[in-house]
Amino acid sequence: MNIKLIKKTKENVANNLYVTFVTSDELSALKEYKLLQKAGFKAEQDTTCFLYGKNKLFCGLEDKSSESIRSSCSVAIKAIKTTEYKSVHFDVKMKTIKEVVEGIVLGGYEFNEYKSTPKKTKLKNVYLECNDVKAFSTAFEEAIIVADATCFTRDIVNQTPEDLNPPTFAKLAKKLAKENNLECEILGEKELKHEKMESMLAVGRASRHDSKLIHLTYKPANAKKIISLVGKGLTYDSGGLSLKPATSMVTMKMDKAGACATLGMIKAVSELKLDVEVHVFIGAVENMIGGDAYKPDDVLVTRNGKTVEVRNTDAEGRLVLADVLDYAQDKVQADYLFDFATLTGACMVALGQYTTGVMGHSSLLKHTLSKSAKNAGELTGSLPFNRHLKTLLKSGIADLSNTASKPYGGAITAGLFLDNFIKEENKDKWLHFDIAGSAYTETPWDCNVYGGTGAGVRMISEFLKEV
Ligand code: BES
Ligand code: ZN
Ligand code: ZN
Predict the structure, then answer these.
(1) Rounded Cα distance, 399 and 391, in Å
(2) Alpha helix (H) residue ranges in 332-429
(3) Which residues' Cβ are closer than 6 Å to ligand 1?
(4) What is the dihedral of CA 251, 256, 257, 260, to 10 degrees?
């Protein structure tokens, strides 16, 4: 499906399928009002009415907000893809071009890699019509880059654990580096041992795939700021010896979504050619069972020297991130240090499935990122640290336990665990994003369809455009 920005002409209007967005207040002013009324169309949000004879698709809007427009565009494109139309025209305005592009590209996204006969759509071209192509083109091109990077992230998240394991993840990162002119360094198990990353290595020990640390760099000539993005890359999380129940294990290929998001972010930033130096650090590991598996009762020595009692091998993400965060801080003195992880089921309990949990010490930074998320069409909620929750991570035998002694506030105690691996000078530069709920969905919502959502990519692209 191609998407093009073109100038509005009278001829186009007469001969092509047109999409019209309408609120219930505007309905009676339309010249097709009587017909639409007959069809029972009330212009409710996410409802559509096709007038095939008139080459028109009407889409309902609750209001003119970004959310409503993006969601409605997603519904529209899905409806058009089931018809025989080869092309479609949308009217765009400067204010909403981003939402329209996102709705079409992200809402129209399909992942067909594992279908023997992928669904065929006749739709080839989507035309966005405006009055001044030159004036609209930057906004249009930027929106396409970010939406494509989000789809790139979704594609990797959706890959099966058989296809996407730590070594193939490293290969994929190398390919992206080559295509986008990024530096790429991969650390294998020998190098990880040399780096004393015993915590990360323990998690991956029972896997038949070697663990990998992936470091990608985008270095523009005149970088104004430096950012390090750390991603949890559990290509599969079986829970380890503290095995997950059968139904909870399904979808755990998505435990690499944080890592996939950081790849999407560096792809977007390098294609937007932003003046920000970006470092991506990924801990790619598979959490499995077997005679060689790490165990509850083990005590691990992390890269920064702190010891951790393992009480649950399913709280593995924090063990991987502990070492990768420490490594990232030694390698790069960044202005911002953000990590992305499908870290806790508790985050979904706290905020619901649609919202990313944001944790950190700097209220200002949390606030700034929540504004970027809002502008980018992502949902975030701040989960506050406190000293009482911190005490729940005490261990009788080691410096720390990998699980809290009480279950309440599980997303926050996981964030506080990571805080132990943030150096004093970086406390206010660090944010932790728990995307356990927002990174994957089995039911469509907004512009998200079944599978990976690409959570984080739009938010960080927006943030980095502004810094
Ligand atoms: N990967 C999971 C968290 C998760 C759960 C992500 C559901 C997405 C959907 C993580 O490794 C995990 O299992 N966390 C445990 C922590 C607990 C053992 C302290 C959890 O959330 O139950
Ligand atoms: Zn786990
Ligand atoms: Zn996990």
Answers:
(1) 12
(2) 345-351, 363-376, 387-391, 410-419
(3) 237, 255, 312, 314-317, 342-346, 403, 410, 436
(4) -140
Closest CA to 380 of 352, 411, 418: 352
Q: Annotated catalytic, 70?
A: no
195's tokens: 């780096």
From first to last of its 467 residues, what are the pLDDT tens digits of the chain?
A: 999 999 998 776 667 999 999 999 999 999 999 999 999 999 999 999 999 999 999 999 999 999 999 999 999 999 999 999 999 999 999 999 999 999 999 999 999 999 999 888 999 999 999 999 999 999 999 999 999 999 999 999 999 999 999 999 999 999 999 999 999 999 999 999 999 999 999 999 999 999 999 999 999 999 999 999 999 999 999 999 999 999 999 999 999 999 999 999 999 999 999 999 999 999 999 999 999 999 999 999 999 999 999 999 999 999 999 999 999 999 999 999 999 999 999 999 999 999 999 999 999 999 999 999 999 999 999 999 999 999 999 999 999 999 999 999 999 999 999 999 999 999 999 999 999 999 999 999 999 999 999 999 999 999 999 99
Q: Which residue has the tokens 């990608």?
A: 216
Pocket test for ligand 1, best of 314, 353, 400 (most atoms within 8 A of CB): 314
Token pair, residue 141, equals 């091109």
Global confidence as pTM: 0.98
Instruction: Kindly state the tokens that stand for 16.
Output: 């092509």
| Strand locations in 365-404 (E) | 380-382, 400-401
**SS3 state of residue 106:** helix
Closest atom of ligand 1 to CA, residue 402: 19
For residue 242, which atom of ligand 1 is closest to its CA? 18
- Catalytic (active site) residue 303: no
Which residues are CB-contacts of 115 (< 8 A; sequence separation ≥ 6)?
A: none
8 Å CB contact between 232 and 317 = yes
What CA–CA distance (Å, rounded) separates 282 from 78? Answer: 34
